[in-house]
Design goal:
Helix content: 25-40%
Strand order of the largest sheet: 1-2-9-6-11-5-3-4
Bound molecules: 2-oxoglutaric acid, fe (ii) ion
Strand content: 15-25%
Number of helices: 8
CATH architecture: Sandwich
Structural class: alpha+beta
Order of helices and strands: EHEHEEHEEEHHHHEEEEH
Largest sheet: 8 strands, mixed
CATH class: Mainly Beta
Radius of gyration: 19 Å
C-alpha cells in the first residue's frame, strides 16, 4: 500500500538536511507520497482578490496552465491586467517549486526538467468528463499528446484553499501489482501508427513502446470498475497550506474533491534516478521480458 511520508520542511528555499534529502528520494522512488504539511504557498492580496473573493476569473478547462518557456498562460478568460497577476503568481510558484526540488533532491539536479505549471481553481467533485479524462478514477499518469519515452513524471502540489477545505485523493497499491493485473489485456501498437501520430502532429514526437503501453494501462485502469472499487486503496486528505510530491506515473491516484491547488510537473530520465529499477519503464520491461524503447 502506498505510504505517505511526512517531512517537516517549512521553507521552499532553506537548505535541506542530508537526512531529509535521503528520506525524500527514498520515499518518492519507492512509490510513496512525500508530504510537506508545513509548506504553504503564500498569496499576495491582489491574487486573493482575483481568485477567492467574488467574481474571479472564468476558467475554460479544468485548469489554467503556464508554459515557462515563453510565460504564456492557457485556459483562462482573464483580461490583460488580470492575466498579468495570474502569470506572476504562477511564475512565482514555478520558481519556488524548482528551488525546492533542487534543494531537496540534489541527486536530480543534473537531469531534472521542469514541465508545465498549473493552477486548479475548479472544484474536482462532480466535474463532468469522459471516463478517459475522469481523474476521480484511480490511474497512473500518461499524457496522450506528450510521450515521455520512459522519463519519469514527478509532480508537486500545494493546496491553497482559503476556506479550510482539503484536497481529497484516493491512492492505490504498487505499480507492479497494477501492471500485473492489467498486463494480459494490453496489446502492441499497430504497425506504423506511432510514427503516423507524430507526423500528423497529434503527439509531440513519436510514442515509444513504453508510451504506448502506459497509455493503455491508464485507460484499462480507468475503465475497470472492479479494479476501481475492489483494488487495495486508501483515502487521504491534503490540508490547505500543505504541499505534496509524488511520481504520478507510478502511484495509482484519483482526485476526489477540492479546489484551489497549484501543480508543477517535472520530468526525470530513468538514468537520473537513484534506483532506476523502481521506474515504470524498468518494471514493465521486466514483466514483459523485453526492452520498451
Ligand atoms: O488535481 C489533482 O488533485 C490531481 C489530478 C490528477 O490526477 C492529475 O493531475 O494527474
Ligand atoms: Fe493523474
Amino acid at each position: 500500500m502506498t505510504d505517505i511520508t511526512p517531512l517537516a520542511i517549512d521553507s521552499w528555499a532553506a537548505p535541506c538536511s542530508a537526512q531529509d534529502q535521503a528520506a525524500a528520494v527514498a520515499a518518492l522512488e519507492a512509490g510513496n507520497v512525500l508530504l510537506l504539511p508545513q509548506l504553504d504557498f503564500p498569496l499576495h492580496d491582489n491574487e486573493r482578490g482575483l481568485y477567492f473573493q467574488g467574481a474571479g476569473v472564468e476558467v475554460q478547462g479544468k485548469n489554467i496552465s503556464l508554459n515557462l518557456a515563453d510565460h504564456s498562460v492557457r485556459g483562462s478568460s482573464a483580461d490583460a491586467a488580470e492575466l498579468a497577476v495570474l502569470r506572476d503568481m504562477m511564475v512565482r510558484f514555478a520558481t519556488l517549486s524548482r528551488t525546492l526540488v533542487h534543494g531537496l533532491l540534489p541527486g536530480y539536479l543534473a537531469t531534472v526538467e521542469q514541465g508545465r505549471t498549473s493552477f486548479r481553481p475548479v472544484e474536482v467533485a462532480g466535474r463532468p468528463s469522459s471516463w478517459r479524462q475522469d481523474d476521480s478514477r484511480l490511474h497512473v499518469d500518461s499524457f496522450p499528446s506528450s510521450p515521455t519515452r520512459g522519463k519519469r513524471i514527478l509532480r508537486l502540489f500545494t493546496n491553497v484553499n482559503p476556506h479550510g477545505e482539503g484536497r481529497h485523493w484516493r491512492l492505490g497499491g504498487s505499480f507492479e501489482d497494477v501492471a500485473r493485473r492489467h498486463l494480459a489485456s494490453l496489446h502492441g501498437p499497430l504497425w506504423g501508427s506511432r510514427q503516423l501520430l507524430a507526423m500528423l502532429g497529434i503527439t509531440k514526437g513519436p510514442r515509444s513502446a513504453y508510451d504506448h503501453y502506459m497509455l493503455q494501462l491508464h485507460d484499462r485502469m480507468k475503465a475497470d470498475s472492479d479494479y476501481q472499487s475492489s483494488a487495495d486503496q486508501r483515502s487521504c486528505e491534503f490540508a490547505p497550506g500543505s504541499t505534496w510530491m509524488v511520481y504520478t506515473d507510478q502511484v495509482p491516484h484519483a482526485a476526489m474533491g477540492g479546489r484551489f491547488a497549484f501543480e508543477q510537473t517535472f520530468y526525470l530520465p530513468v538514468a537520473g534516478m537513484r534506483d532506476p529499477a523502481h521506474s515504470p519503464l524498468r518494471v514493465l520491461e521486466r514483466l514483459m521480458g523485453r526492452e520498451l524503447v
